[in-house]
Amino acid sequence: MGAVFRKKILYGDLEKVCMDFISAGLPIHGTFLDGDNLYEGDINPNGLIVLGNESRGISQSIRAFCTSRILIPSFATGRHAESLNVAIASAVVVAEFQRKRNYEK
Predict the structure, then answer these.
(1) How many domains does the chain contain in total?
(2) Is the dihedral of CA 44, 88, 72, 40 positive or negative?
(3) pLDDT at 74 (0 to 100)
């Protein structure tokens, strides 16, 4: 409980936040259906994570800022949910990024 008090959460104009992250040389990870598998490859677990809504995804204006496209893979072949709601998707992505950070230490 209380993880919100231990994580950096930003509120504001997302386009400006994206520009600030790019200026600082930090990656912007977006979740996409055609992204790279979250559990494979060398994804930098730092930076900004952007998730879109369940039906429309990330807006066109924000997609342009994404330096990394990630996918939460479906595990059941032939039987899978069409999508995850943003709360579940964010929990999966943040947990994996935290696992990668801990593994790097």
Answers:
(1) 1
(2) positive
(3) 81
